[in-house]
Amino acid sequence: MAVVHEPATEPTAGPSSGRKPLTRRQLENRAGLAYLSPTLVVVLVVVVLPIIWTVVLAFQRIRLVNLRRAGLFDNFTLANLELVLTSPGFWSSLWTTLIYTVGATFLSIFFGLIAALALRGRFRGRTLVRASVLLPYVAPVVAMTFVWNILLSPQFGLVNDWGARFFGWDRPLAFLSQREYTMSLFGWQVDVPLALLTVIAFEGWRYFPFAFLFLLARLQAVPADLEEAARVDGAAPTQIFRHILLPQLGAVIALLTVLRFIMTFNKFDDVYLLTGGGAGTEVVSVRVYEFLTARFDIGAASAQALVLAAGLVVLLIIYLRFMAPRVEGNED
Amino acid sequence: MDRAAVETRVLRVLRWIVIAGLVVVTLFPFYYMLLLSVRPIDEVLQNPGRIWVGISEWTIDTYREVLTPSGSGGQGFLKFLSNSALVSVAATVMTLLVSIPGAYAVSRLRFTGRRQVHFLFLSVYLFPSILLAIPLFVLFTRLGLRGSLIGLTIVYIAQTLPVSIYMLRNYLTTIPVSLEEAAAVDGYSRLQTIRKVILPLAAPAVMANALYVFMIAWNEFLFALLFLVEERADWTVSLGLAQLSGGIEVSKTVLMAGSVVLTLPIVIIFFAAERLLTEGLTAGADKG
User: What is the complex's ipTM, to 2 decimals?
Assistant: First the structure.
């Protein structure tokens, strides 16, 4: 990434004699901290302190009713963690979260790559097409989930209507409320987690523009003569992609994988709005919300959220350690 | 024919199929939303599969119901629109005021902890916002900020600051330092330099940033749900729409009209400034 330019002041900032006026270096230090301080204050108060407080809350038995009387540092207990880890459905929801995250991350990057490759070259109306492709990403999530809900509805959804008319479906599919759908594939009976797959597809649809944007920017920076030389040598398009473009894209794909993984793992609104967490789509963040609003159990909700964050950190470490293709290239 | 020629021909066709597919897949839900919002509900229930209706069959009753104030029997979305606009504009202005000096510091000045600052920013995204929601819910309840738009605005500022600083920093590093040195020679102070030299040059990035923050604030749902759900007068459009779907006597076409009302401002802004936004978001990404 770009080298950060420094004002060339350092050599002149020698120690001065006498009343020790501040060196330029010290002045710069002060100015830097001063300029950044509003940011630091906001992030500290609205993000860092709440995180620390969540950790504390996770180890106290606190419900919304006794919150006012509860001291900040008394009665530490492991009861919340025990409750969360042994509660029915916890492990399956963690597993669901993982499948959901991996599936959605993969889909969004895969389709983003295809879109970037297809929309790379010039053609009439390219600007308009590129802008349109970004729409799922910039449009409000509430509106998008409702449109999908209606499109996929078993009673009056377009998809089921067309499915029955053009593909001869014998009964409507409840895409968002059916846990298992038994499909016969070459004579085999296969159980498909229908609602979960639908939610993953939605996530892939909504976030492939994000991947597309980054991949396209990187593709356009690949030197044209590199490709030209390969073409002159008689390389086929797939060979050019495999040996010239893909190596160039590696770092961006790795970065996108991390970004999309983090964001999807923590995602709440998409699943909540599509299925409410039902039909085998209960991801952990939806469970936290349930603990918080249905049972008013702040302690258990915090413990649950903490487990989610811990899980994410562990997965990220594993990824960065063993699987990331030279992510270091992205650090500056 | 050799492999290269075959592949080139196949891909030439395939590319157009992919482009057409992409356009349909991304635009169709928007088209369908618009279409349903002007169709009468009983007609939709009879013919769910129609994707075209003549203008003579259109109705605007759905929009009338959505926009009429709740006092007069409507859903009161005009009020929600003004709430959303208020929160989004306030969050945008405040985020820019905080992030411009911050980005300048990170890109230009050496200070203690400059390298560590990124880890702090990462924490904003590493932890699920639902995790932040719990203590903020408690804190804002105590401060009396929970049912107010001010509390929501503060959360949006914090949520968008790191990306905002990152985007601006990437842009600022492309502005030659020599310009600043020249300004310093002319006797400008650092703040004057930022205001008179850096800001005009960074205007595209600042604009892109403003759009980004506005969109995030306009589209946000979780915190609005947690903080404002009890105060109908304070609902944002996203929250109002989500609550609308829970209502029993609200037809799907009215819901779609509400969705159009929620989506339209964002789509208009986006198409007006698409180039700015995409270039601003990915500035620096192409250096891989």
Answer: 0.87
